[in-house]
Amino acid sequence: MKSRYKIGILALAGFGLLIYFSKPFSERSYKIMLKSLLIHNVPELNIDEAIQQDQPLFLDAREKQEYDVSHIKNAIWIGDKTFSIGRLNGVAKNKNLIIYCSIGYRSEKITEQIIKAGYQSVSNLYGGIFEWVNEGNPVYDSTNTPTKKIHAYNHLWSKWLRKGEKIY
């Protein structure tokens, strides 16, 4: 498990360099980045599929400060580095769960843990909140007020966010 984590960190560093030296956003480079970065070992939903789900519970696997800037309506913050399965106490094992982060990398890891804990209807949001916003869907701040602000993770990764006001 630790070696897989190290490989993931190295992959993120490599993608960071790729992003830094690459041209501005292109749909093709975005799709290549997502396909390459994610392992695709858990169920995935694109934005349209997620919107069509029957009463899903969105779980935000970003850091708390990212969630506080904006999140999908009624999403519950579960974190990434500090995630524990205990954060799902009270959530039925058959509840339809959609996990997201900025682009889907961190949420893919959390989705895997949730599935291993016995939850039956769990999916990773492919493209994460960046894709959610890029496709024109609303996000809400810590007071549940609609906002245009979106935490862009950092300047390197912000190139994948085409809409909204980038916050760091």
Give your account of this protein's structure.
The mean pLDDT is 90. The chain is of the alpha/beta class. The chain is globular, with a radius of gyration of 15 Å. The chain starts with a helix and ends with a strand. The protein has a five-stranded parallel β-sheet with strand order 1-5-4-2-3. The chain has helices spanning 2-21, 27-37, 47-52, 64-69, 105-116, 128-134; strands spanning 44-45, 57-60, 76-77, 96-100, 121-125, 139-140, 146-147, 149-151, 165-167. The longest helix is centred in the first third of the chain and has 20 residues, at 2-21.
Which helices and strands appear, and what pairs or packs with what?
Layout: H1 2-21, H2 27-37, E1 44-45, H3 47-52, E2 57-60, H4 64-69, E3 76-77, E4 96-100, H5 105-116, E5 121-125, H6 128-134, E6 139-140, E7 146-147, E8 149-151, E9 165-167
Parallel strand pairs: 1-5, 2-3, 2-4, 4-5, 8-9
Antiparallel strand pairs: 6-7
The largest beta-sheet arranges its strands as: 1-5-4-2-3
Average pLDDT number: 90
First and last CA, distance = 30 Å
Order of helices and strands: HHEHEHEEHEHEEEE
Task: Give the helix tally.
Answer: 6
Gross morphology: globular
Which structural class do you get from the secondary structure elements?
alpha/beta
Q: Helix proportion of residues, in percent?
A: 25-40%
Largest sheet: 5 strands, parallel
Q: Low-confidence segments, ≥5 residues, pLDDT <50? A: none
**Assembly annotation:** single chain
Beta-strand residue percentage? 15-25%
Tell how many strands the DSSP assignment holds.
9
Backbone CA Rg: 15 Å
